[in-house]
Amino acid sequence: MNNSKIWLSSPHMGGSEQQYVQKAFDANWVAPLGPNVNGLEQDLENYLGNMAHVGALSSGTSAIHLGLILLGVQAGDEVLCQSMTFSASANPILYQGAIPVFIDSENETWNLSPVALEEAIIDRIANGKKPKAIIAVHLYGVPYQIEAVRALADKYEIPILEDSAEALGSSYKGQKCGTFGDIGVLSFNGNKIITTSGGGAIVTKTTMQKDRAVFFATQSRDNAPHYQHSEIGYNYRMSNICAGIGRGQMEVLDEHVGLRRKMNAFYVDLFKDIAVVTVFTVPNEDYFANYWLSAIVIEPNQEGIDREALRLAFEAANIESRPLWKPMHLQPIFEKYPYYGKKVAETLFENGLCLPSGSNLTIEDKNRIKGVITNFFK
Ligand SMILES: *Cc1c(COP(=O)(O)O)cnc(C)c1O
Prior knowledge:
By secondary structure, this protein is an alpha/beta fold. It has helices at about 15-25, 35-50, 60-70, 90-95, 115-125, 145-155, 205-215, 240-250, 255-270, 305-315, 345-350, 365-375; strands spanning about 55, 80, 100-105, 135, 160-165, 170, 175, 185, 200-205, 275-280, 285-290, 295-300, 320-325, 340, 350-355.
């Protein structure tokens, strides 16, 4: 029997990526600008709709950093951030010398709890400092409570930085994720729903904001024949080679979303008679998830059934699974910062597990996964 490693989420090429890369070589556009960069931005703008403007960058992390800069976040400012997320959502707050204030999740979407968010906003304002931005994340491709979070942002006039790194292809009431924030962020890292090997994008409401982001991303060069700089610059633009991979990936994005959703349905079916397991799915039909990763929560019991035991059973079969993101307020680098909420994120972290979710998993892979689960819960 084939025992090769089954990954959580590995790159899945569509076929035309190398042609775009070849064109870049043929024209010698081997640089952080060129036709593939412009083409990928155009593809993403068409895909997202909603008059989105897109700037292709070297990573999702750099997009979050530039997003904070565009929103005016400076040293000493406070930024509200979902605690349950990947560290890249929060690190750029520290790059700016600003202060993260972490917010708990709610159980429906595992994302920002509107109750904890409002509690934090009121308390920070009472302490004399109104937060400068809200970083909201669509974990594993499931949209956050779009309307409730927007209502609070409007009520207190605090802009949203929408971390849609995991949610390209997801939508809420038909509108694509990435277009809900005052600024949106996408990632094309190797494990994401589509990849440019490494890359990301910033999504803005106006051309001016996009131009500003690209200006910062290309060392903040002023308009002069020599190199002239009046602001801090960054080297955050996407390479034309990487963008070529992205152009090929855009051709198969919706197909790959469909395949990830099938993986999620596979797990829903597999666990339907196992009472201690809940598969993470959207709360209702307004939500459409790309299910970048399929995740479950296991209620631990006396018979040795828990998250870690299942993870080890997968590991023994050379199958990757991983606990959910460890909340930021529990991370050594962030634990000294304020946190608002209860223990929703903590409990999800203790009992949650991400399962192999790639759009490229074979029937044989699925059978191996099924074998481990059937054996573990028998
Ligand atoms: C992947 C990811 C990022 C960062 O994207 P990179 O392209 O890896 O820099 C940010 N936020 C979340 C939630 C992510 O999953």
